[in-house]
Amino acid sequence: MIFEELGHIEEAELEAQSRFERRIHVCAAAGCLASGADAVKEALSGELQSTGLEERCQMVGVGCMGLCSRGPLVSIQPDNVLLAQVRAKDAKEVVGTLGKKPPKRLACPSDLPFFKRQLKVVLENMGRIDPERIEEYIAVGGYSALHKGLTEMTSQEVIDEVVKSGLRGRGGAGYPTGLKWSQLSKESSPIKYVVCNADEGDPGAFMDRSVLEGDPHRVLEGMILAGYATGATQGFIYVRAEYPLAIKRLNLAIKQASRLGLLGHNICGTPVSFGVEVRVGAGAFVCGEETALMASIEGGRGTPRPRPPFPTQSGIWGRPTMINNVETFANIPPIIRNGGKWLAEIGTEKSKGTKVFSLSGKVVNTGLIEVPMGITLREIIFEIGGGIPFGGKFKAVQTGGPSGGCVPDSGLDVPVDYESLSHLGTIMGSGGMVVMDDSASMVDVARFFLDFSRHESCGKCIPCRVGTVQMHGLLDKIAANRATSEDLAMLEELCDLVRKTSLCGLGQTAPTPVVSTLRHFREEYLSHLSGKA
Amino acid sequence: MPTSVKVKTLRIDGRDVSAREDQTILEVARENDIWIPTLCHLDGLSPVGACRLCLVEIKGSTKLLPACVTAVEEGMEVSTQTEGLESYRRMILELLFSERNHVCSICKSNGHCEMQTLAQRLGLTHIHFPYRYPSLPVDLSHELFGMDHNRCILCTRCVRVCAEIEGAHVWDVMGRGVDARIICDLNQPWGTSETCTSCGKCVHVCPTGALFERGRSASEMDKRPEFLPYLTLMRRAGGE
Ligand SMILES: Cc1cc2nc3c(=O)[nH]c(=O)nc-3n(C[C@H](O)[C@H](O)[C@H](O)COP(=O)(O)O)c2cc1C
Ligand code: SF4
Ligand code: FES
């Protein structure tokens, strides 16, 4: 295929879609599937068939619509009708009211603050296209950024746009993406690799999974552009085995893109070549750490190694390698389409663009959200999230999973950006956000994450391997009201040791849940010390 | 050795020293009789930076860096013996002693153990952390050697010497975190290994009493790792 044919595919697809009067979108992402979306889709299809409407109404399985707590979700276009908590037995009623007023019991207003306060860049296609058909992606402008990048821009110009956008890595640390790309582009090795980190192991996080399941081509498009910009010809997507649907859809997307010549040798007749392979992880959180991830791709045991050398200097099989997160790559197509300046206008001075969060815990609306950087935690929790259910009282919000910390009430008006969150003693992280009400015990929260870290420690370095176990033991003791103030002092000493002396990011950040709860909720720890509780 | 190697000047503990640009801080420190504690490091094996005992402070950097893998840089100012570092080192050793069952008095390597010697040198008098007392096996299936997991500190010297020097790769690590363990071949008794050449290199690079020759009693197992620098030197000479 040559790029011009993308236009034909787009036209043909739009033409085919226009033959239908309406499209029924049924969420086919993990959350809704778990609450029975498959059966709903089947029942709706059956109903369309038996009423003879199948010629006029197209059924589409789409990616996550966001409001996971109210699934299975169904949306009807172009009527802009959203139905929540649909059951298979509702199919008759839903099909019967097509084009009319939807059943009251199911209707969900689409102008809720949950939807209105969001800004969708990465998630722009979620819930709108069938992730298993490349034609649908192309019909909403997919691969036009690749077309533009490869035919109208030099590699350096692609990097320049990414630099201009101010995009920072969404995998947690917030490293400037454009800088990383330019570092790889300067390496002279004839073989270079681009890696998409889809290991997403933080408990409670499902952002990357949703993007891969709902819009996989977008990630491929970002990766191919990265390959072109940096001179890498091979890409790997490292996905955890616990995401079988994401793996299936990625493999399908790779097959479809290769068939159209968007991947492989001489992409669409240009001199650019880029191939992508999926590598499946074996369920170790530490394999999200970049040096462990590379060891795992090489087929070795996934343990981190000291840096330098950094991956862009010496990575997979000693070759320069650049690792970016799923969401980072997913930001690239709109940056190239609209220009870096466009993204740079969203967000705060040092944190540009949007961030996807998986909102969960004690909040009315749980699900997948995308917000502009700079929004406050209060707006996220009380407007988008709808506040605490059953009139409960807010206590803390945890961000950044096992590497992050808890923010109390007093931090709610701080804008969400990398620096502000770090001042509060937590991190942006990859986007996990767990809301807690006043029934939560902060010692238990810290204990939960330390339990996670001690099990996920790879065991290579002593401070993390043994330190996390000792810390967890002390937290057990505190929770059981058996600890003394010496134990608390020992816990704090260990926090400092593990943080400062561990080899990789896992150990270096494992104490954060303890340090942050001690900082904001120290009295809770003190009340547990023996003789006081 | 390439002839174009540059020479760098740096400062370690206030002393001006010179170094080849491909040297690590640890190498230069040792050349100048500046002692930095190490456990996982062994000259002749690939460095892993795992034990964290060799961490040093570098002026201008908030991070502590492992001397065994950190390359020298022009004008670097390194401190190897600050109060903070000593306290971290003692705590790391304490954690190690608390992890498994290190009972020196009945250990075959008592008096010849690198961990014991380090503890003495760092002035470790007691262990603050609660002992874990895990239940761990002793593998006595090999006719010449034994492996006591109670004494193993997971430094992976045995794994590396076997893979890198002997070329047999009998040993590897299985499991995660505190449950990580050194295994033989596909996690089987040493005596049933089909790859082990019974060369004994692993025994002699092991810093503790974890790997030992059979027939030795408490305090009788002294280690002779001197073969290693000799072998690496001869190999390098042979390769040139
Ligand atoms: C223990 C640990 C786990 C990590 N897990 C992930 C992960 O699941 N996904 C991810 O993108 N980055 C993860 N990271 C961060 C990566 O090491 C790396 O910084 C990131 O993928 C770089 O991409 P970015 O620049 O686009 O953020 C992890 C880091 C550590 C230390
Ligand atoms: S910090 Fe933890 S996970 Fe990282 S190398 Fe050390 S033991 Fe492994
Ligand atoms: S000797 Fe440097 S980390 Fe062990």
What integer is the average pLDDT of chain B?
95
- Overall pLDDT level of chain A: 96
User: What is the SS-derived class of chain A?
Assistant: alpha/beta
- Which regions of chain B contain 5 or more consecutive residues with pLDDT less than 50? none
- SS summary, helix count of chain A: 23
CATH topology of the largest domain in chain B: Alpha-Beta Plaits
Helix and strand topology:
The complex is a heterodimer of chains A (533) and B (240).
Chain A: H1 4-18, E1 22-27, H2 30-34, H3 37-50, E2 57-62, E3 74-77, E4 81-83, H4 91-96, H5 113-116, H6 134-139, H7 144-152, H8 155-165, H9 177-186, E5 193-198, H10 207-214, H11 216-230, E6 234-240, H12 244-259, E7 275-281, H13 290-297, E8 321-325, H14 326-338, H15 340-344, E9 354-361, E10 367-372, H16 377-384, E11 394-399, E12 406-408, H17 418-423, E13 432-437, H18 442-456, H19 462-479, H20 485-501, H21 505-509, H22 512-520, H23 522-528
Parallel strand pairs in A: 1-2, 5-6, 5-8, 6-7, 9-13
Antiparallel strand pairs in A: 1-3, 3-4, 9-10, 11-12, 11-13
Chain B: E1 7-12, E2 15-20, H1 25-31, E3 55-58, E4 65-66, E5 77-79, H2 83-99, H3 114-121, E6 138-139, E7 145-148, H4 157-166, E8 171-174, E9 181-184, H5 201-205, E10 211-213, H6 227-239
Parallel strand pairs in B: 1-5
Antiparallel strand pairs in B: 1-2, 3-4, 3-5, 6-7, 7-10, 8-9
The complex binds flavin mononucleotide, iron/sulfur cluster and FE2/S2 (inorganic) cluster.
Iron/sulfur cluster (SF4) binds next to helix 19 and helix 21 of chain A.
